[in-house]
Amino acid sequence: MNIGGGKGVDLLSVEYRKAVSSLMLKASLSPGLKTWTEGNHVGFEGTKERIKKMFDKVELSVSSYDTAWVAMVPSPYSSQAPYFPECVNWLLENQSHDGSWGLPHPHPMLVKDALSSTLASVLALKRWGVGEEQRNKGLWFIASNFASVSDEKQHSPIGFDIIFPGMIEYAKELDLNLPLGQRDVDAMLQKRDLELKGSLGSNTKSREAYLAYISEGMGRLQDWEMVMKYQMKNGSLLNSPSATAAALSHLQNAGCLNYLRSLLEKFGNAGWELIGILGWRSEVYWDETYRCWLQREEEIFADRATCAIAFRILRLNGYDISSVPLAQFAEDDQYFKFGQDFKDLGAALELFRASEMIIHPDEVVLEKQNSWSSHFLRQGLSNSSIHADRLNKYIAQEVEDALRFPYYANLDRIANRRSIEHYNVDDTRILKTAYRWIIENRLDKLKFARQKLAYCYFSAAATIFSPEQSDARLSWAKNSVLTTVVDDFFDIGGSEEGAPKPYSTALHSTISEIGVKASAWQARNVTSHIIDIWLKLLRSMLQEAQWVSNKSAPTMDEYMTNAYVSFALGPIVLPALYFVGPKLSEEVVEGPECHKLYKLMSTCGRLLNDIHSFKRESKEGKANALALHMIHGNGVTTEEQAIREMKGLVKSQRRELQRLVLQEKGSTVPRICKDLFWKMSKVLHTFYEKDDGFTSHDMLRAVKSVIYEPVLLAEF
Fold first, then answer.
1. How far apart are CA 587 and CA 668, in angstroms?
2. Distance CA 320, CA 565 (A)
3. Backbone angles phi, psi at 128, to 5 degrees
4. CB atoms < 10 A from the CB of 152, how many?
5. How far apart are CA 302 and CA 308, in angstroms?
6. For 485-530, what is each residue's pLDDT tens digit?
7. Which pLDDT does position 392 carry in this prediction?
8. Percent of the chain at pLDDT exceeding 70
9. Which residue range or ranges hold the Terpene synthase metal-binding domain (predicted)?
């Protein structure tokens, strides 16, 4: 967010984003599934520290636009003299060679921003009768680039269609001769009047706040009594120097004056705007953000996007906060109906993301917020101008991704890739060495087994991608392969006499290998626990095979008691807990909290699987939760009814899982361990987005994007 809240462009520097992108990609993608060495670890720690410093870094950039409006404030002692002559001097000394004021190396799609800054600067110089040479150069720049005003492909600063015509009217009052065609000026004023007519006809607080934020462009139309309701504790109007300067010019308000003075004392002769990342990702800021949340600090609650981000970050990191404060944005569904500004789209996106953090069954505020924000975002995507705007096509892609991949099905590795694909990074691929284990154990010779190795490696690489967690990743991937093989053995090629030798050998050797490594990590023998996990899985699969063989139908309770185990996530997730860092006692890893996390995760997966495999398994005579629900359910007679109820059960189980993962108070399982259950839940929702995961074309593309394909960059 801007310190000054100026109407100019608030962008991350391209070089900064490229640097972060490159570092993040090297830290998360390059090591793949290969063995982690001490040398790699040292390099990784250095990379992490560099990334942390970059995220903590705040870059400040001069805002010519805000400086010009502050320069226009008259002295209380003489209306013919500026209150802040140092700002006037800064404008005289900082004009670009092409006659403009603004960003030093502006992007070709930011001409409207340069026009706003240049016209404001020319007005300030004309107001005090100085800088005739600079004014003439500025007017030449405006005349040469005026066609961009009506160019829909150009990026528009906030409120441009109201503020820029307002400045043109002010130029007339100052007898400033603008070299513009009257027809073009009339068209612009007409467009401004239509927007204002709609805005002034609305009395929503959100629209009032918007009009207060663009006060400098309102001129005589502004209701200053209404505007001052939005003065913040620091004296500013919504942290905007330009709006605050306009208010000071009209009202001589002491709070406005103190705010502008504080800016000049802090930053020198120019108003400034903040560009960069404010450290939301650093733990050092979370407690401070939590304090501000509890105290309802306006720095958070005055801005919908900031409030939504704070809520999401705090809840994701285990802070026990209520969603009730978000109720203040309940009327935003009305506000967002007034045009579809890119700024609005970004704010709606953050509110939508916040609404996905539902962890309690009665969070009506978030339910409603999710409904209207998703509707607005879909409407925004239908607006062709967002796709035409080269600078904002990324926000369009973010919106598409958010709607298509909800939080509970958005794998971190793929999300990270989507976030950095627009920037220049090195080609990286996973090495082929991890596949040798398949051949060495002759698993490729088992005719009945599905050869879906890439999917198994994908779930590991997309879930546990930190380089220092390579042992956890290998355990996850190998056990994924083995559970797929054993599932197919019981489904297709199995018999009660025994399993084929390659499978038995692979299972024995892999359990032994993982047990030895896990015991070394934990400094105690945990092999017996890993063996027990596998025995429970085999017993549960044998039970299902016997149901089919005996042609018997279990009750729903009998089925689910067995089915969450037979879904085969135990050998994948539970041993991996031993490799992510913390020392885990037997009481913790085999205790009720860990078991509940495992059961909730597995139940979600089993129900999702059974919904999608209902028709196939019914033909094969296999027990299926959906079929049993239709047989034993109270009044449920149709497949559609049963599916709706099953999906509702999945949602409730998923939310309870998320609540337990985020819960800090009374939890004995370390957060990094609990995250594995949630990440596997994300994998499941991704796999079963459309069908059974192993036949989805979209799933295949996701696998390729993580394992095989280098990141390709798009130019801005």
1. 9
2. 31
3. -110, 10
4. 9
5. 11
6. 888 777 764 554 555 566 678 888 899 999 999 999 999 999 999 9
7. 59
8. 71
9. 442-496, 505-655
What CA–CA distances, in Å, run from 665 to 37, 308, 583? 36, 23, 20
Q: What is the pLDDT of residue 583?
A: 95
Distance, CA of 493 to CA of 489 (rounded, Å): 5
Asked whether the domain spanning 442-704 has the same topology as the one spanning 283-404, the reply is no
**Domain residues of the chain, as ranges?**
64-267, 283-404, 442-704
Those residues whose C-beta lies under 8 Å from the C-beta of residue 572, and which sit 6 or more positions away, are 459, 476, 479, 480, 483, 680
Element (H, E) at 544: helix 527-550
d(CA 602, CA 645): 18
pLDDT at 636 over 60: yes
Count of C-beta atoms within a 10 Å radius of residue 47: 16
229-280 pLDDT, tens digit each? 889 888 998 888 999 999 999 988 999 999 999 888 776 655 444 333 333 3
Least confident span in 117-131, 295-309, 604-618:
295-309
Integer-rounded Cα radius of gyration of the chain: 30
Q: Which class does domain 64-267 fall in?
A: mainly alpha
DSSP annotation string for 2-60: -SS--SS-----HHHHHHHHHHHHHHHTTTTTSPP-HHHHHHHHHHHHHHHHHHH-EEE
- Give, for 62, the enclosing helix (H) or strand (E): strand 58-62
Q: Indicate the DSSP class of residue 82.
A: B
Ramachandran class of 39: left when φ > 0, alpha when ψ lies in -120 to 50, beta otherwise: alpha
The predicted-structure confidence for 393-450, as pLDDT tens digits, reads as follows 667 788 888 888 888 888 776 777 776 664 433 333 333 344 475 555 665 555 544 4
- The answer to whether 657 and 622 are in contact (CB under 8 A) is no
Q: What are phi and psi of 274, to 5 degrees?
A: -90, 130
CATH 1.50.10.130 holds for 283-404 = yes
Please, which residues bridge with residue 274 across strands?
A: 60
Say whether pTM exceeds 0.85: no
Query: What's the pLDDT at 84?
Result: 93
CA distance 218 to 618: 68
Give the separation between CA 250 and CA 252, rounded to whole angstroms: 6
**Residues 711, 25 contacting (CB under 8 angstroms):** yes
Distance CA(646)–CA(630), nearest Å, equals 11
Alpha helical stretches, state H, 302-392: 304-316, 332-335, 342-355, 364-381, 384-388
User: 442-704, which class in CATH?
Assistant: mainly alpha
